[in-house]
Amino acid sequence: MAVRTAGLRLEERWRDILAVHARTMCEIDRALHPHGLGASDFEVLDLLVTEGPEEGAQCRVQNLVGRVHLSQSALSRLIARLEKDGLVERTMCAEDRRGVYVALTHRGRDLHGEVLPLQRAVLARMLGEGAEPRP
Description:
Elements: H1 2-32, H2 39-51, E1 58-60, H3 61-65, H4 72-84, E2 88-92, E3 100-104, H5 106-127
Antiparallel strand pairs: 1-3, 2-3
Helix pairs in contact: 1-5, 2-5
């Protein structure tokens, strides 16, 4: 019986984590929507800034795959949309024709800087010290 009770507690904790994640992603989406971004869009821009803080730095798309919660095809579509919006540029890897590099444009870097405080404020509100777990 103790094993079953422990299993139920684990399931409850897992569902709580998923619920907090879903609520937080929705709040980030709401905060960034007026700027034409969603939570996943921001996550990719944020990772690109982290991977290459200097202007013009490139990152292999493959390096992003395990760091965002999207399938490789969904990530490719998201990057294509960011490219269409002028926020990133894609280039082919000369050494490996299957490889693709992505870099923030000046516009993408500026937009990231503009919305970063909004995203961080949501994280602080939803996950910070004293944040109340919601049902």
